[in-house]
Each structure stands twice: as C-alpha cells, then as structure tokens.
Specification:
Chain A: Pfam families: 2-oxoacid_dh (PF00198), Biotin_lipoyl (PF00364), E3_binding (PF02817). Chain A: This is Dihydrolipoamide acetyltransferase component of pyruvate dehydrogenase complex. Chain A: It is an enzyme of class 2 (transferase). Chain A: InterPro entries: 2-oxoA_DH_lipoyl-BS, 2-oxoacid_DH_actylTfrase, 2-oxoacid_DH_E2_comp, Biotin_lipoyl, CAT-like_dom_sf, E3-bd_dom_sf, PSBD, Single_hybrid_motif. Chain A: GO terms for molecular function: acetyltransferase activity; lipoic acid binding. The complex is a heterodimer of chains A (430) and B (88). Chain A is an alpha+beta fold. Among the domains of chain A are: 76 residues, Beta Barrel (OB fold (Dihydrolipoamide Acetyltransferase, E2P)), CATH 2.40.50.100; 199 residues, Chloramphenicol acetyltransferase-like domain (Chloramphenicol Acetyltransferase, 2-Layer Sandwich), CATH 3.30.559.10. Helices cover 27% and strands 23% of the residues of chain A. In chain A, strands 9, 12, 15, 17, 18, 19 and 20 form a seven-stranded mixed sheet that branches. A five-stranded mixed sheet of chain A has the order 7-2-4-5-16. In chain A, strands 1-8-6-3 form a four-stranded antiparallel sheet, with no helix packed on it. In chain A, strand 13 and strand 14 form a beta hairpin. In chain A, helix 7 crosses helix 9. The longest helix of chain A is centred in the middle third of the chain and has 19 residues. Chain A is elongated and about 90 Å long. With 88 residues, chain B is mainly alpha-helical. Chain B has one domain: ACP-like (Non-ribosomal Peptide Synthetase Peptidyl Carrier Protein, Chain A), CATH 1.10.1200.10. In chain B, 51% of the residues lie in helices and 0% in strands. Chain B is built from four helices and no strands. Chain B is globular and about 30 Å long. The two termini of chain B are 19 Å apart. Classes of the chains: A alpha+beta (430), B mainly alpha (88). Chains A and B meet through helix 6 and helix 8 of A and helix 3 of B.
C-alpha cells in the first residue's frame, strides 16, 4: 500500500492546496498518470502518481491546504484484495468507527454511516465527513488560475460570479467586476479557495491571500539565496548575426507552426554549454556540489498578472531544436494559461532568466537554491561591433552568468560563457 | 476580407493570445506587442492563429507590417484581396 502525498514542487514550496481530484476512489491508476491538481503559491500544477494500483481512499478534500508530505490518498498495489484501510489504533470493526457525537450528528442529518468514508485516524469518521456526506461539495467551478487567485484576494465567492469565458468559465475580469459591484474588498471575508465548505481532513493552515503568498514564496527563496550563496557575476556580449541569419533561412522554409524564435536557439546553446561545463550544472547539497546527470533547463516564465514560474525542460541538451521549440511553446503556454505537470517543476539543474526579446539588455539573476548558477539573457539588440577591423552593426545579446563561488570559480564561469558564444556561432550544429 | 473584418479577426486573435487584454486601451498606431507585453512566443502564437484564420502565410520578413493594429489590418485586408499585388 502506498500513500500519495502532497509533493514538493520546487525548493521554495512548503505547502500546497489540493484543487481537484482527477480520479475517484476505486480508480485504477498507473505510474505517471495525472491524478490531482495542486495549487502552489506560484501556479496550478497537475500531479502524477508514482505507483500503479487502485486508489482505495481519497484522504483530502479539494480546497484543503496542507504541508508538503501530507498523505492525500491511499493507493493499493494492483491485484490486491479488498480495499486497504489505513492502519490505526482503533479495532477493525465491521462498522466504521465513529464517536457517539458523530453518530448523533449522522442521525440528525440523515446520513448512513456505512456509506461514509472516514478520514480520521484509523479510518474513523469525523464530523466533517458526515457534513460532507450530508452536503456534497459543489461541482468545481470553471475558472482561470488568475481568476481563482483574485477571487481569494478580493474576497469574492467564485460560485456567485457569472463567467464570460468559454463555456462560462470565470475570467479575472469577471472577478474584478464582481468585487467592484459588491464592494467586497476585505481579505478577512475571503471564503475558502475552491468552495470547500467542510473542515479539512488533514491539518491545514488558513491560507494567506494568494498575491501575498506569491510574494512571500519568492521573498523567502531569494533571501535564502542571497544569505547562503556567495554569488559571482560574469558578462559577455555575443554576436548573434550568424545564428539569426541561419534562423531566418530556416523559418522561410517552415510553416508558421514550425517557426523558431531566437529564445529556442539560445536555450539550446545554454543546455549544450551546461553539458560541456558540468561544474555549473547541478546542485549544492550538504556542503558540496553534486553534478547532475542530465540537463534540466529551468526557464523563468513571467506570468500575466505578476509572478514568475521556472518550469524545466528535461533533456534540453539532447532535444533536437524543433522539438525543443515545441516543448518551449507548450511549456510557456501551460505555465501561463493552464497547468504544468509536477515532473516539469522538478528541480532544474540550471536556470535561464529572460526569454530575451523585450525589456532590458542585461540581467544578472539570483540563483535558485540549491542550483549553483543562473544564466541571464537580455534583449536581442543591434549594436556596433568590430568585424575584421571594420565597424558593423550586428544583432547581439548580453549573456550573463551568476554563479555560486562555493561550487565554482570565475575561470569555470568564463569557460561557460565562452562556450556559449562558440556554440551560437555555429547554429547549424544546435 | 474587408479592413473591418480584418481588424475584428486581429482583435479576437489577440484576445485569445492575451486573455483579458484591454484592446480599447491600445492606440491603433501603437506597437501592440509592447503595449500588451507580448514576448516572442506570444507573438508567434498570434501569427500562427492569424495565419490559420486568414489563410495567409505571414512570412517572417513581413512581421514588421504586423506590429500595430492599423498596420496589421491594412496588411491582412490587402493580402486577402487576392489581387496578386506585390506585398512589399
């Protein structure tokens, strides 16, 4: 028997909110199936299970916020007998264990205790379980992640908002309009995040407003990074004329759907450089550097409405460029509009910030612990450059490296940026 | 496609790429990409959808014509007229 627990979806996550179950009790699941949707301080993420078997018990209610590691469901290995019940101190009686108070409540509310799943210790039925059985939770309201967050921070009940999105989904503007019309702005009056009216089945903290939680999560992680990591910084300007010329030729042969953007070339080059300079690709764990076996490239994606997520592109060094481009499009689209998979939030081995086409020319990032480096790519911009003793105007990018001086020295960082430059001069090999 | 139809199509595509975008705040001659903070992937997404709706190839060298609502509407109206005129 295995427990499906609230996963850690990043170094800075210590609790998460169960938004939705995608499986029911009794469902057969295979390792890798998406079974639940979890909301972290930063985004909504689809979570896969790591075991195959039967979901014998769902322990947590949607809307519940619990610490990382809290059991959410019980999964029994395939081909096991009757549904396993969590072992507990209580005797395994035929009738589900319940206190007299709960029995009394059940009688009053007309709930059959035999049909109720106990979520307490040893499968004990709690008052919350009875309330749930008597008043089933409303169906999940279709709403965008941003709308959900706004609803919590503005104290708007999503169920009372008329959605104007596709299939009546509630959009952020609908929530703003609802907040404006009722004048509801007090955060104290905020209802539960997902309409779960019953008491949580597991220890839960009252969640802070989502906007604040975003900021707090980033604040905690960045403070830790600057407290613990002695950063050193390097910068170099890379001529992109060869890379962009090659890309233009490629794109003229491609349909719109298959066109590349400069970010894809840059990310591929960074991934290859990370493979060539493995001293920067890995984690600082237990007082020493642990090199990673593959390159999982974290790509910082800014979210509309604020915030930042850094999902990872697995095997970015080995993906052919068109595949990397497709993966990038998919990842960014889902990070912004939909949901990421838990496997995509697994700790990256190296992170890149700024997709490089708007904004400033130079960015020096703060390293995400326990990673040991962060690559910054500024806006691609035309600059005067010296070519064969002549002045020319070429598209360029300023590439920076923030690196952990405990794990590497400037010479290593310098080798990384030089390698990145060399790789970008041969775009056909990317 | 008339210019009005083109503009309507462009607006709906932008709204799809940038959910909740307030297009009424974007001046017709302004660079809507900058206005709406669309990065290169958003813009590619926009080009892809617009290509699908209009049947135009929208080659990369024409991207410069697609930066403002006005320019974009002119371009699409012109290109879908099927006169075979030289777009450049």
């Amino acid at each position: 028997m295995g427990e499906f627990t609230m996963p850690s979806l990043g170094a800075d996550m210590d609790e998460g909110t169960l938004v939705e179950w995608l499986v029911a009790e009794g469902a057969e699941v295979a390792r890798g199936d998406v079974v639940a949707v979890v909301e972290t301080a930063k985004s909504t993420i689809e979570v896969e299970c790591f075991e195959s078997g039967t979901v014998t018990e769902l322990l947590a209610e949607p809307g519940t916020t619990v610490p990382v590691g809290t059991p959410l469901a019980v999964i029994s290995p395939a081909a096991s007998g009757p549904p396993a019940v969590a072992p507990g101190p209580g005797p395994a009686a035929a009738a589900a264990p319940a206190t007299p108070l709960v029995r009394h409540q059940a009688a009053e509310e007309g709930v059959d205790l035999q049909a109720v799943h106990g979520s307490g210790r040893g499968g004990r039925i709690t008052r919350a379980d009875v309330s749930r059985a008597a008043h089933p939770a409303p169906a999940r309201i279709a709403a965008s992640p941003l709308a959900r967050r706004l609803a919590v921070s503005l104290g708007v009940d999503l169920a009372a908002v008329r959605g104007t999105g596709s299939r009546g989904a509630v959009k952020a503007d609908d929530v703003r309009a609802a907040a404006g019309s009722t004048g509801a702005a007090g955060e104290e009056s905020a209802p539960g995040a997902a309409g779960g009216e019953s008491a949580p089945a597991a220890p839960a903290g009252r969640a802070a407003p989502a906007g604040d939680r975003d900021r707090l999560a980033i604040a905690r992680l960045m403070a830790r990074a600057k407290r613990e990591i002695p950063h050193y910084y390097l910068s170099t300007v890379i001529d992109l004329s060869a890379a962009l010329e090659w890309m233009r030729t490629e794109n003229s042969r491609r349909t719109v759907a298959d066109r590349l953007v400069p970010a894809a070339l840059l990310l591929k080059a960074v991934a290859l450089a990370a493979r060539e300079v493995p001293e920067l690709n890995g984690h600082w764990i237990g007082g020493r550097f642990v090199p990673a076996t593959g390159v999982r490239l974290g790509t910082a994606v800014s979210l509309r409405g604020g915030g930042l997520v850094a999902p990872s592109l697995a095997d970015a060094d080995r993906l052919p460029l068109p595949d990397l481009m497709a993966a990038l499009k998919d990842l960014v689209a889902r990070a912004r509009h939909g949901r990421l998979r838990a496997s995509e939030t697994a700790d990256p081995t190296l992170t890149v910030t700024n997709l490089g086409d708007q904004g400033v020319e130079t960015v020096f990032g703060v390293i995400y612990p326990p990673q040991v480096a962060m690559v910054g790519l500024g806006r691609v911009t035309d600059r005067p450059v010296a070519v064969d003793g002549m002045l020319a105007v070429h598209p360029t990018v300023t590439a920076t490296l923030s690196a952990d001086h405990r794990a590497s020295d400037g010479a290593t960082g310098s080798r990384f940026l030089t390698t990145l430059d060399r790789l970008l001069q041969h775009p056909e090999d990317l | 496609m008339t210019r009005d139809e083109a503009l309507e199509t462009i607006r709906s595509v932008i709204e799809e790429v940038v959910p909740g975008a307030d297009l009424s705040s974007v001046p017709p001659h302004a660079n809507f990409r900058e206005y709406l903070e669309m990065d290169s992937l958003d813009f590619l997404n926009f080009v892809e959808l617009l290509s699908g709706r209009t049947g135009l190839a929208l080659p990369e060298q024409d991207y410069a014509s697609l930066t403002t609502l006005d320019g974009c509407a002119d371009y699409v109206a012109e290109q879908t007229r099927g006169t075979g005129g030289d777009p450049s």
